Amino acid sequence: MIAGIDLGGSQIRVAIAEPEGRIVATARARTPTLRTPRRVADWAAERIARLVGTASLDRAAVGAPGPVDPTRGVLVNPPNLPGWRNVPLASLLADRLGCPVDLENDANLAAWGEYRRGAGRGSRSMVYLTWSTGVGSGLVLDGRLYSGAHGAAGEIGHTIIDPDGPLDACGQRGCVEAFCGGAALARETGESAAEIFEQAARGDERAVAIVRRAATTMGYVLINVANLLDPDLIVMGGGVTRSWGRVAPVLLSVLRSSPFIRPSRRPRLRRARLGDRVGQVGAVEWARSRR
After folding, report:
1. What is the pLDDT of residues 12-33, one digit of tens each?
2. pLDDT for residue 133
3. Is 57 in contact with 97 (CB distance < 8 Å)?
4. Does this model's pTM top 0.85?
5. What domains can you pick out in the chain, each with its CATH number?
6. CA-to-CA separations, 290 to 102, 137, 285, in angstroms, rounded
7. How many Cα atoms sit within 13 Å of 63 on the Cβ side?
8. β-sheet with 59-64: strand ranges across
């Protein structure tokens, strides 16, 4: 059996899968109630053992918010897990599970999940963008997950589009996330990103204008992505997909407006398919690929 673990600031989810990848059991808990890395590892190991039963566990993978050090299996200092500094999460889990455990950035594993089991199936080079509270991404290039020299490749949300722009939580000015992220939109409107996207989906004029403006900016980001990485496919997930019918036409219009990106090399754009299962599916698929 294979285990996939999706660790986030608000929830931790585990999935048990058969060797071919079919998920047969899942469980979840609220991360804040577990509080410490050791208690999180204890809960995950106990729940996985209960779900696996008498079967043997061959391998596990965990996706966690960056920055992470996949080589050492260390969760470095994730902003949405305060106090989790230099946590050897892979070894904590491996000691309890009795099998190898791989640690990767959660956006990378989400990309891998969509590539293997979701909207990215059949592509060769795919960029996955998740657009919700923040803007995250993962890269699958020539059929391989690409994480860069320090495990930090694909931080498209923190590429700078205006050095005189608003200050982002990362400390830079003018990041994509500072213009398009749900947190930035919430500061502007006093409402959550989910509310804004849902209101736009219902046709609320104010929300539609806000989402259209952000989508126009994101369209230019897609032009940069196409010129830098030349993927055949861009998959977009996250809360923005709630108003996909309004966002996608804007994204495509801007992307098609580039005279430099000719139709023959213009990436396709698809809505993500795995929803909130993407982290679990990606972790399972990553564990399968590492056997």
Report:
1. 999 999 999 999 999 999 988 8
2. 79
3. yes
4. yes
5. 2-104 (3.30.420.40), 119-273 (3.30.420.40)
6. 8, 21, 9
7. 28
8. 23-30, 11-17, 2-7, 59-64, 101-105
